[in-house]
Amino acid sequence: MITIAPPTARRHAEGQIDLLLAHDGETTRLHRGMAVPPLQLSRIRYDDPDHPGRANLTMLHLGGILAGDHNHIQVELGAGAEATISGAAATQVYAMPAGAATQEIRLRLGVGSRLRWLPEPLILFADACFRQELRVDLAPEARLVLLDVVVPGRLARGEVFQFTRFESLLEIYDQAGTCLAAERARIEPRHADPSITGVFGTTPVLGSLYLLGDSLHAETLCVRAAQLCGGDGGATVLPNNCGVLIRTLGTSASAVRRQMITFWRTLTSEYDPL
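The chain above was modelled as a monomer; its predicted structure follows.
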Protein backbone atom coordinates (compact mmCIF):
# COMPACT_ATOMS: atom_id res chain seq x y z
CA MET A 1 0.00 0.00 0.00
CA ILE A 2 1.31 3.46 -0.90
CA THR A 3 0.91 6.10 1.78
CA ILE A 4 0.03 9.54 0.41
CA ALA A 5 0.79 12.42 2.72
CA PRO A 6 -1.60 15.40 2.66
CA PRO A 7 -0.39 18.55 0.91
CA THR A 8 1.02 21.24 3.15
CA ALA A 9 0.55 24.99 3.12
CA ARG A 10 4.28 25.62 2.64
CA ARG A 11 5.21 28.07 -0.05
CA HIS A 12 7.87 25.81 -1.54
CA ALA A 13 7.08 22.19 -2.32
CA GLU A 14 9.05 19.36 -0.70
CA GLY A 15 7.98 16.39 -2.81
CA GLN A 16 9.04 12.91 -1.78
CA ILE A 17 8.82 9.35 -3.00
CA ASP A 18 10.17 6.45 -0.93
CA LEU A 19 9.77 2.91 -2.24
CA LEU A 20 11.04 -0.50 -1.20
CA LEU A 21 10.21 -3.38 -3.55
CA ALA A 22 11.08 -6.93 -2.56
CA HIS A 23 10.97 -10.30 -4.29
CA ASP A 24 8.28 -12.60 -2.87
CA GLY A 25 8.18 -15.99 -4.56
CA GLU A 26 7.58 -15.24 -8.25
CA THR A 27 6.30 -11.70 -7.65
CA THR A 28 7.82 -8.35 -6.70
CA ARG A 29 5.80 -6.80 -3.90
CA LEU A 30 5.68 -3.31 -2.41
CA HIS A 31 7.07 -3.45 1.13
CA ARG A 32 7.27 0.30 1.72
CA GLY A 33 5.69 3.11 -0.23
CA MET A 34 5.24 6.81 0.43
CA ALA A 35 4.43 9.71 -1.87
CA VAL A 36 4.34 13.34 -0.71
CA PRO A 37 2.71 15.84 -3.12
CA PRO A 38 3.41 17.27 -5.58
CA LEU A 39 4.88 13.84 -6.40
CA GLN A 40 2.38 11.03 -6.89
CA LEU A 41 2.51 7.32 -7.67
CA SER A 42 0.01 4.97 -9.24
CA ARG A 43 -1.01 1.73 -7.64
CA ILE A 44 1.27 -1.19 -8.35
CA ARG A 45 0.34 -3.15 -11.48
CA TYR A 46 1.22 -6.57 -12.88
CA ASP A 47 0.26 -6.00 -16.51
CA ASP A 48 3.37 -7.15 -18.38
CA PRO A 49 2.37 -10.43 -20.08
CA ASP A 50 6.02 -11.41 -20.61
CA HIS A 51 6.91 -10.78 -16.95
CA PRO A 52 3.75 -11.27 -14.86
CA GLY A 53 5.63 -10.95 -11.56
CA ARG A 54 7.28 -7.63 -12.40
CA ALA A 55 5.97 -4.60 -10.49
CA ASN A 56 4.95 -1.65 -12.66
CA LEU A 57 4.35 1.85 -11.32
CA THR A 58 3.77 5.27 -12.87
CA MET A 59 5.13 8.46 -11.35
CA LEU A 60 3.58 11.90 -11.81
CA HIS A 61 4.71 15.38 -10.85
CA LEU A 62 1.68 17.58 -10.24
CA GLY A 63 1.89 21.23 -11.20
CA GLY A 64 5.46 21.34 -12.45
CA ILE A 65 8.58 22.54 -10.62
CA LEU A 66 8.81 26.08 -9.26
CA ALA A 67 11.55 28.15 -7.62
CA GLY A 68 12.40 26.84 -4.16
CA ASP A 69 10.98 23.36 -4.79
CA HIS A 70 12.98 20.35 -3.68
CA ASN A 71 12.11 16.78 -4.58
CA HIS A 72 13.66 13.69 -3.04
CA ILE A 73 13.06 10.32 -4.69
CA GLN A 74 14.38 7.04 -3.32
CA VAL A 75 13.69 3.64 -4.86
CA GLU A 76 15.18 0.47 -3.41
CA LEU A 77 14.91 -3.03 -4.87
CA GLY A 78 15.67 -6.07 -2.77
CA ALA A 79 17.55 -9.09 -4.08
CA GLY A 80 15.88 -10.54 -7.18
CA ALA A 81 13.15 -7.89 -7.38
CA GLU A 82 12.01 -6.62 -10.79
CA ALA A 83 10.23 -3.33 -11.47
CA THR A 84 9.45 -0.74 -14.13
CA ILE A 85 8.87 2.87 -13.08
CA SER A 86 7.69 5.19 -15.83
CA GLY A 87 6.32 8.71 -16.06
CA ALA A 88 2.76 9.79 -16.75
CA ALA A 89 3.72 13.12 -18.33
CA ALA A 90 6.70 15.35 -18.97
CA THR A 91 8.17 17.19 -15.98
CA GLN A 92 7.93 20.94 -16.58
CA VAL A 93 10.46 23.21 -14.89
CA TYR A 94 8.91 26.68 -14.90
CA ALA A 95 10.40 30.18 -15.07
CA MET A 96 12.31 31.24 -11.95
CA PRO A 97 13.04 34.98 -11.96
CA ALA A 98 14.62 34.41 -8.54
CA GLY A 99 15.79 31.26 -6.80
CA ALA A 100 16.24 27.71 -8.10
CA ALA A 101 14.86 24.19 -7.71
CA THR A 102 16.52 20.86 -7.05
CA GLN A 103 15.73 17.17 -7.37
CA GLU A 104 17.61 14.28 -5.79
CA ILE A 105 17.10 10.72 -6.98
CA ARG A 106 18.65 7.61 -5.47
CA LEU A 107 18.19 4.18 -7.01
CA ARG A 108 19.46 1.25 -4.93
CA LEU A 109 19.46 -2.17 -6.58
CA GLY A 110 19.98 -5.37 -4.60
CA VAL A 111 21.71 -8.52 -5.82
CA GLY A 112 20.25 -9.77 -9.11
CA SER A 113 17.50 -7.14 -9.19
CA ARG A 114 16.20 -5.45 -12.36
CA LEU A 115 14.91 -1.88 -12.65
CA ARG A 116 13.65 0.01 -15.67
CA TRP A 117 13.63 3.74 -14.90
CA LEU A 118 11.74 5.33 -17.80
CA PRO A 119 10.56 8.87 -16.98
CA GLU A 120 9.00 11.20 -19.55
CA PRO A 121 11.11 14.16 -20.79
CA LEU A 122 12.27 17.04 -18.61
CA ILE A 123 11.32 20.44 -20.13
CA LEU A 124 13.27 23.54 -19.08
CA PHE A 125 11.16 26.67 -19.57
CA ALA A 126 12.67 30.12 -20.16
CA ASP A 127 14.35 31.46 -16.96
CA ALA A 128 14.34 28.02 -15.31
CA CYS A 129 17.18 27.28 -12.88
CA PHE A 130 17.33 23.60 -11.98
CA ARG A 131 19.77 21.07 -10.55
CA GLN A 132 19.28 17.29 -10.57
CA GLU A 133 21.43 14.77 -8.72
CA LEU A 134 21.06 11.06 -9.40
CA ARG A 135 22.91 8.35 -7.52
CA VAL A 136 22.81 4.68 -8.49
CA ASP A 137 23.95 1.87 -6.16
CA LEU A 138 24.38 -1.45 -7.96
CA ALA A 139 24.82 -4.78 -6.19
CA PRO A 140 26.38 -7.73 -8.08
CA GLU A 141 24.26 -9.09 -10.96
CA ALA A 142 21.84 -6.13 -10.73
CA ARG A 143 20.79 -4.40 -13.93
CA LEU A 144 19.37 -0.94 -14.56
CA VAL A 145 17.87 0.66 -17.66
CA LEU A 146 17.98 4.43 -17.12
CA LEU A 147 16.39 6.83 -19.61
CA ASP A 148 16.91 10.60 -19.61
CA VAL A 149 15.52 13.08 -22.17
CA VAL A 150 16.16 16.81 -21.68
CA VAL A 151 14.26 19.44 -23.68
CA PRO A 152 15.67 23.01 -23.55
CA GLY A 153 12.37 24.88 -23.78
CA ARG A 154 8.90 24.83 -25.29
CA LEU A 155 10.14 24.09 -28.78
CA ALA A 156 6.77 24.53 -30.51
CA ARG A 157 6.78 28.16 -29.32
CA GLY A 158 10.31 28.80 -30.52
CA GLU A 159 11.61 28.79 -26.95
CA VAL A 160 15.04 27.19 -27.14
CA PHE A 161 17.93 27.53 -24.65
CA GLN A 162 16.32 30.41 -22.80
CA PHE A 163 16.64 28.82 -19.35
CA THR A 164 19.08 30.33 -16.85
CA ARG A 165 20.97 27.25 -15.71
CA PHE A 166 20.72 23.47 -15.82
CA GLU A 167 22.99 21.27 -13.73
CA SER A 168 23.07 17.49 -13.75
CA LEU A 169 25.09 15.02 -11.70
CA LEU A 170 25.04 11.25 -12.15
CA GLU A 171 27.11 8.92 -9.96
CA ILE A 172 27.23 5.13 -10.15
CA TYR A 173 28.51 3.07 -7.19
CA ASP A 174 29.01 -0.61 -6.50
CA GLN A 175 27.85 -2.39 -3.35
CA ALA A 176 31.10 -1.56 -1.54
CA GLY A 177 30.58 2.17 -2.11
CA THR A 178 33.25 2.51 -4.80
CA CYS A 179 32.40 5.11 -7.45
CA LEU A 180 32.41 3.33 -10.81
CA ALA A 181 31.49 6.29 -13.02
CA ALA A 182 30.42 9.91 -12.67
CA GLU A 183 29.09 12.49 -15.09
CA ARG A 184 28.60 16.22 -14.47
CA ALA A 185 27.01 18.80 -16.75
CA ARG A 186 26.31 22.52 -16.39
CA ILE A 187 24.66 24.54 -19.12
CA GLU A 188 24.21 28.32 -18.88
CA PRO A 189 23.01 29.55 -22.28
CA ARG A 190 23.54 33.22 -21.44
CA HIS A 191 27.24 32.59 -20.87
CA ALA A 192 27.88 30.17 -23.75
CA ASP A 193 25.50 29.47 -26.63
CA PRO A 194 24.74 25.70 -26.73
CA SER A 195 23.10 25.96 -30.18
CA ILE A 196 26.37 26.50 -32.04
CA THR A 197 27.62 23.94 -34.53
CA GLY A 198 29.56 21.18 -32.80
CA VAL A 199 27.52 21.37 -29.61
CA PHE A 200 23.73 21.00 -30.05
CA GLY A 201 23.39 22.85 -33.35
CA THR A 202 19.88 22.51 -34.76
CA THR A 203 19.10 19.38 -32.70
CA PRO A 204 18.45 20.68 -29.16
CA VAL A 205 16.80 17.63 -27.57
CA LEU A 206 19.27 15.37 -25.76
CA GLY A 207 18.47 11.71 -25.15
CA SER A 208 20.60 9.45 -22.96
CA LEU A 209 20.11 5.74 -22.31
CA TYR A 210 22.23 4.02 -19.67
CA LEU A 211 22.38 0.22 -19.54
CA LEU A 212 24.09 -0.60 -16.25
CA GLY A 213 25.23 -3.76 -14.52
CA ASP A 214 28.35 -5.86 -14.00
CA SER A 215 26.79 -8.87 -15.75
CA LEU A 216 26.22 -7.08 -19.06
CA HIS A 217 28.42 -7.73 -22.08
CA ALA A 218 29.26 -4.05 -22.36
CA GLU A 219 31.60 -4.20 -25.36
CA THR A 220 29.14 -6.24 -27.42
CA LEU A 221 26.22 -4.01 -26.48
CA CYS A 222 28.23 -0.90 -27.31
CA VAL A 223 29.13 -2.10 -30.80
CA ARG A 224 25.53 -3.01 -31.59
CA ALA A 225 24.19 0.23 -30.10
CA ALA A 226 26.55 2.27 -32.27
CA GLN A 227 25.20 0.45 -35.32
CA LEU A 228 21.64 1.24 -34.30
CA CYS A 229 22.46 4.92 -33.78
CA GLY A 230 23.95 5.38 -37.24
CA GLY A 231 24.96 9.00 -37.73
CA ASP A 232 22.43 10.41 -35.26
CA GLY A 233 24.17 9.42 -32.05
CA GLY A 234 26.80 7.25 -30.47
CA ALA A 235 27.59 4.75 -27.73
CA THR A 236 30.42 4.18 -25.30
CA VAL A 237 31.43 1.68 -22.64
CA LEU A 238 31.36 3.36 -19.22
CA PRO A 239 34.36 3.36 -16.86
CA ASN A 240 35.07 0.21 -14.87
CA ASN A 241 32.96 -1.72 -17.38
CA CYS A 242 29.84 -0.86 -15.39
CA GLY A 243 27.64 -0.49 -18.46
CA VAL A 244 26.97 1.35 -21.69
CA LEU A 245 25.84 4.89 -22.48
CA ILE A 246 23.87 5.54 -25.68
CA ARG A 247 23.28 9.17 -26.59
CA THR A 248 21.47 10.93 -29.41
CA LEU A 249 20.23 14.40 -30.40
CA GLY A 250 16.97 15.35 -32.07
CA THR A 251 14.39 18.04 -32.71
CA SER A 252 11.43 16.40 -30.97
CA ALA A 253 11.16 15.10 -27.42
CA SER A 254 8.72 12.36 -28.38
CA ALA A 255 10.86 11.23 -31.32
CA VAL A 256 14.05 11.08 -29.25
CA ARG A 257 12.36 9.19 -26.42
CA ARG A 258 10.78 6.77 -28.90
CA GLN A 259 14.17 6.18 -30.53
CA MET A 260 15.81 5.45 -27.17
CA ILE A 261 13.06 2.97 -26.27
CA THR A 262 13.48 1.28 -29.65
CA PHE A 263 17.24 0.93 -29.11
CA TRP A 264 16.67 -0.62 -25.68
CA ARG A 265 14.04 -3.07 -26.90
CA THR A 266 16.20 -4.12 -29.84
CA LEU A 267 19.20 -4.76 -27.60
CA THR A 268 17.00 -6.63 -25.12
CA SER A 269 15.63 -8.91 -27.84
CA GLU A 270 19.09 -9.64 -29.25
CA TYR A 271 21.02 -10.09 -26.00
CA ASP A 272 20.32 -10.82 -22.36
CA PRO A 273 17.07 -9.31 -21.04
CA LEU A 274 17.56 -5.92 -19.43
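The first helix runs from residue 218 to 229.
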